[in-house]
Design goal:
heterodimer, A: mainly alpha, 3 domains, 73% helix, 3% strand, B: mainly alpha, 22 helices, 75% helix, globular
Chain lengths: 618, 508
């Protein structure tokens, strides 16, 4: 089984490195096929491992030592257990689809080869992240995906906005990474190891304050990767990258790494329910907060990005309240339908010559039927309508909130579910149905190539049926994860399910009804609420004016006024003073005998005085 | 193998003297050959080096002035071994990348002399010998900046010389005083470091001596607020000068701290630990912000060097094996990375004769390979895992966490700010459309430049993935030093402190 582990892990990087050699050459279709094949091989290996992993058999290998100093010893170790294998399968499956899709999507791009090199490198980093058996190994993947995300958001580096967004994402993640590093240090100095098994075995022996701090630091790390408030702004800006990247990195895999971390460190978080409650509350807040921004946005990709943000909030609610397997389940189903949604959006963008404003589309159904169907499936799944995947996973999260007695959280999620349904179908309606605005603007949409559509069908299939695996998923993952006990009455659970479904359906119905009739009037754009939402609560502006600008001017001030004027001037002044003294004292050496004699007398007097009055310490 | 250290020290000197006989056309090949042989010898030294032995190896001893105990005494341990290899390696790489035609002969001979003084500093076990090499190293550098620099080279060279010299003079007083105390205590004269290490000093004496040594090292590092000579020196120096200055000369200061301050004055070290750490943190943040404000690409990297040196100092003053081993590793990795970055800046300067970032933009379009190599070096500088930069930074910060977590948090902002100024630099210079016509059709990296950069890039990746061969010998020697410090410290609370910062969960 070790062989499969290594194949699953290293196949992507082999593809990436070989492809990198061709990065500067003109497009080679075989590059796309080659990397896709390798990712597919990685997927097959992951499936074999999924089949193999069982209650008492997991695969755990140590490749070699990495860092050792003092008492610290960090190996390159990898573990395939119930949690990591789920992540591996999800990641490689979505990656395979995205790779194949990209062959079509990036067809006309001059940097076709470079794209595949980065994309496969990302998959490798993500595999390191989920497969490592220690926290530092996870951190390698953590930074690795950050790097690849940087490279891919800024893929079209000639565009100013793209490279800006790439830097923003990297830097915001770095802020959170510092928190994570602090968590790692704290773990190390209290346990003496960063291996998962040792840490989780010994964490119970620690003082509860220390555990709380560990929990907080690790969560700060998770907040950056999973774009939780207040570090969320980078995710929407990351939409500057090519759409397959948004689908893979900024919907299905990388942004869920934070959730994975909390699930993986579940043994720590079960000890500190207060921190867990905070995580859940922040998650619920983000779920509603992000959904509200999705309600009014006109940018096709940004709407989906906010929706991702909102769904990440749902996952954090589940993880924070201790329902780790449910968080993981929603993570998986979300990966399927959200990447499907994004890839569908990519087709729409291509059809519309990269136009993103959904108000300029409309009626695309007739031109691109398959895409419309696929995106509708994904939207229904996202809205959480029975029997699609989202229903099973999202509903469970609401049940958890209710079961926990956190009625306020439940209510927030409930509202969020309604908003989700509404904005999803607002998007579907504005893009595919209604008046054909694009005709007036002179667009001539066309459907994507057939193989691109076929590549998406596995995702669509999974978005429909994945929910039915709930039971086996539960049994499988709770072999490792702490189980979550429902104490809810069966009838109350049923009522909750009905209520949630009802709010989702009414959200859809309202969107369909409203946008069939041409949508809202332009007047709402005058409303304060609308302005607040369309400006993303003015948070990006606040960051720009409140942090970036002062930082820049303060840096300039430090350089020009402190470093140059004070620190360096002082040095020059000291040097100048010495030089000046010498210059003045030189006049003593005038060669004039009488003045020389006078100086000599003065000198003798001083020396005499010293000899008389100065007594060195004996 | 008996005299391998003397060979390493004096081979560049002798080769440099013979260099005067070599004719002008072949001097470059001659220089590279000498540097390569020298590098090979240091590699042989590494192979022969016993990594499990913590003490000094290949020791050579010859009395010079017997009445004062001054001797020619050299040796190598895990702490100095890799700094020696770094010196010879970077000299070789810098010579490969060298493309100055004017007076090339004199320049190359200067560099070979400089190489001798650098390895001399790291290998000396006699303090007088150490001091000689330490001061000698200023002379070739003064020439390199003063003769081959840009417009304000004389000012920069003299500032560099006088500033660092002023600090060293105080160290000389400290050395003499220490020698005097050694004589007063034991009745014999000795300037040998292993002898000095056994001497237990009263606290007040430790304070004065610590101060005298520290100032010299602080200026060399350079620590805030003694750092202003560095941006001038880098700004005016030719590429080869900047590479050696950043990669090796600055490390002499931090090496001095590890070699002298910690084992000789353990109580004073612990006493001054927090103030020094605060200065180091100010230095990390302050210079990172100043780096962000720069318009000149080379100045960004110059200031970023200072910022990284702050992390190194923090690691040293963690007084635990994790921190000190990490900081020594960071000295190596920073040498490789900053040296590489200065070479890359030099390559752009050769093409465009400017270093202002506003003149660039879109370089990734015209020079894709160059941009890729620059990107790898930049990510190593930012400290991305699996590059060489991560290991040392991680260990240094981890070590200091045990001393004080809040201060570590502040120092850790350095990794954020590092990403800020480096990525901004990259974006401004390499991304975007080409707006300046002069950047169109620039030649991508050529064979000579690749020959210089590929070893660096390879090391960045290899040592990032497999740092163990370097970490292990360092760690062995560092652990021995910490035991020595613990034994030597006068105050019982300092003994406890050393045990505490070296153990998991507060000394259980």
């Amino acid at each position: 089984m070790e062989t499969y582990l290594y194949i699953a892990l290293f196949a992507p990087i082999v593809g990436s490195l070989i492809t990198a050699l061709f990065a500067q050459m003109p497009k080679k279709i075989c590059v796309g096929i080659f990397t896709s094949t390798l990712i597919f091989i990685s997927f097959i290996s992951s499936m074999i491992l999924l089949n193999y992993v069982d209650e008492d058999q997991i695969v755990h290998v140590k490749l070699m030592d990495w860092i050792s100093a003092g008492n610290l010893s960090i190996p390159f170790g990898f573990v395939v257990d119930q949690v990591s294998v789920i992540m591996m399968v999800t990641v490689t499956l979505v990656s395979t689809v995205v790779h194949i899709y990209s062959i079509g999507y990036m067809d006309h791009d001059e940097s076709f080869n470079r794209f595949f090199s980065w994309l496969s490198a990302f998959v490798f980093s993500m595999m390191i992240l989920v497969m490592s058996d220690n926290f530092v190994g996870l951190f390698i993947g953590w930074e690795g995906v950050g790097l690849c995300s940087w490279g891919l958001i800024g893929f079209w580096y000639k565009k100013h906005s793209a490279s800006w967004a790439a830097n923003e994402a990297f830097i915001m993640n770095r802020i959170a990474d510092l928190g994570m590093l602090m968590g790692l240090f704290l773990i190390y100095w209290n346990i003496g190891s960063l291996q998962y098994d040792i840490v989780f075995a010994q964490i119970v022996n620690l003082d509860i304050n220390v555990v709380t701090w560990i929990g907080i630091f690790l969560f700060i790390g998770a907040m950056g990767k999973s774009a939780q408030f207040p570090l969320h702004t980078w995710l929407a800006d990351a939409m500057e990258g090519p759409t397959p990247v948004s689908a893979l990195i900024h919907a299905a895999t990388m942004v869920t790494a934070g959730v994975y971390l909390i699930v993986r460190a579940g043994e720590i978080y079960t000890l500190i329910p207060d921190v867990g409650l905070f995580i859940a509350s922040l998650g619920a807040f983000v779920a509603v907060f992000a959904a509200s921004m999705a309600l009014v946005n006109r940018d096709l990709k940004r709407i989906i990005a906010y929706s991702t943000l909102s769904q990440l909030g749902y996952m954090f609610v589940a993880a924070g309240l201790g329902a780790y397997w449910i968080a993981l389940f929603h993570l998986m189903t979300h990966a399927f339908f959200k990447s499907l949604l994004f890839l569908g959006a990519g087709n729409v963008m291509h059809a519309m010559d990269d136009e993103l404003d959904i108000k300029k589309m409309g009626g695309l159904y007739s031109a691109m039927k398959p895409t419309a169907i696929l995106m509708s499936i994904a939207s229904v799944a996202l809205a959480g309508i029975y029997p699609l995947a989202g229903f099973f996973s999202k509903d469970k999260i609401l049940e958890v909130a209710f079961n926990n007695g956190s009625y306020f959280l439940w209510f927030a999620l409930f509202i969020g579910a309604g908003m989700t349904a509404f904005y999803s179908f607002r998007l579907v309606m504005l893009v595919f149905f209604g008046e054909k605005v694009h005709k007036k603007l002179g667009f001539n949409p066309h459907e994507a190539k057939p193989f691109v559509i076929y590549a998406l069908t596995p995702l669509a299939l999974l978005a429909i049926v994945a929910g039915f695996f709930e039971q086996s998923f539960h049994e499988f993952t709770t072999q490792l994860l702490v189980n979550y006990e429902f104490t809810l009455d069966h009838s109350i659970a049923l009522i909750l399910i009905f209520a949630t479904s009802a709010v989702a359906i009414s959200g859809i119905a309202f969107a369909v009804y409203k946008y069939k009739r041409g949508g809202f009037s332009e007047k709402i754009e005058e409303w304060g609420v609308y302005k607040l939402l369309i400006n993303q609560y003015y948070i990006p502006k606040l960051y720009k004016d409140g942090i970036m600008k002062p930082f820049t001017s303060f840096s300039k001030f430090l350089w020009l006024n402190i470093d140059n004027m004070i620190v360096d001037k002082t040095v020059d002044m000291i040097a100048g003073a010495i030089y000046g003294t010498g210059e003045k004292a030189r006049k003593m050496q005038s060669g004039n005998l009488s003045s020389m004699l006078r100086w000599m007398v003065a000198g003798i007097i001083i020396l005499l005085a010293l000899a008389i009055f100065y007594r060195p310490m004996v | 193998m008996d005299h391998i250290l003397s060979l390493i020290i004096f081979f560049p000197l002798i080769a440099g003297i013979f260099g005067f006989l070599v004719n002008k056309e072949s001097i470059r090949a001659y220089g590279i050959t000498v540097a390569f042989i020298e590098f090979t010898i240091t590699i042989a030294l590494w192979i022969a080096f016993d990594g499990n032995e913590a003490g000094f190896q290949f020791v050579e001893h010859a009395t010079l002035i017997s009445s004062f105990g001054v001797s020619y005494h050299v040796g190598v341990d895990g702490i100095s071994l890799f700094l020696v290899i770094l010196s010879t390696f970077m000299t070789m790489v810098a010579l490969i990348g060298l493309n100055i035609e004017k007076d090339a002969k004199n320049l190359i001979i200067s560099i070979l002399y400089l190489e001798m003084t650098m390895v001399g500093v790291f290998l000396s076990l006699d303090v007088i010998l150490f001091y000689l090499f330490w001061e000698f190293s200023l002379v070739p550098m003064l020439y390199i900046i003063g003769a081959w620099g840009s417009d304000r080279r004389i000012y920069a060279a003299i500032k560099f010389f006088l500033y660092t010299f002023a600090g060293s003079v105080l160290m000389l007083v400290g050395i003499l005083y220490m020698g005097y105390i050694y004589h007063a205590t034991t009745g014999v004269w000795s300037f040998s470091i292993p002898d000095w290490e056994l001497l237990i000093l009263p606290i007040s004496t430790q304070f004065w001596l610590f101060g005298a040594f520290f100032l010299a090292f602080a200026i060399k590092v350079p620590m805030f607020p003694f750092h202003t000579w560095l941006p001038y020196a880098h700004g005016q120096a030719p590429t080869v000068g900047s590479v050696i200055l950043a990669a090796v000369l600055l490390k002499m200061g931090t090496y001095g701290m590890v070699r002298f301050l910690l084992p000789l004055f353990p109580d004073a070290t612990i006493y001054f630990l927090i103030p020094i750490a605060i200065v180091a943190i100010v230095m990390v943040i302050y210079t990172a912000m100043v780096a962000y404000a720069q318009k000149d690409m080379k100045q960004v990297i110059a200031y970023s060097s200072i910022s990284h040196m702050g992390i190194i100092i923090l690691g040293i003053f963690a007084i635990n094996a994790e921190g000190i081993t990490g900081s020594i590793f960071l000295m190596i990795s920073h040498g490789i990375v900053s040296g590489g970055l200065f070479m890359l800046v030099g390559m752009i300067y050769d093409r465009r004769h400017t270093k202002l970032m506003s003149e660039f933009g879109g370089l990734a379009i015209s020079m894709p390979t160059f941009a890729t190599i620059y990107g790898i070096m930049l990510m190593a500088s930012v400290g991305l895992p699996l590059t060489v930069g991560f290991v040392g930074e991680f260990l240094s910060l981890m070590g200091f966490y045990k001393v004080n977590w809040i201060m570590t948090l502040f120092a850790g902002t350095g990794i954020i700010l590092g990403a800020v100024y480096m990525l901004t630099l990259y974006k401004r210079s390499f991304f975007g459309e080409i707006t300046n016509d002069k950047n169109r059709g620039l030649k991508d990296i050529n064979g000579r430049e690749l020959a210089a950069m590929i070893p660096l890039v390879a090391l960045v990746v290899i040592l990032g993935i497999y740092p163990k061969p370097i970490l292990d010998p360092i760690d062995t020697s560092v652990k021995k030093m910490i035991v020595l410090m613990q034994k030597k410290s006068v105050l019982p609370e300092n003994k406890e402190f050393i045990i505490k910062v070296n153990s998991i969960r507060g000394g259980e």
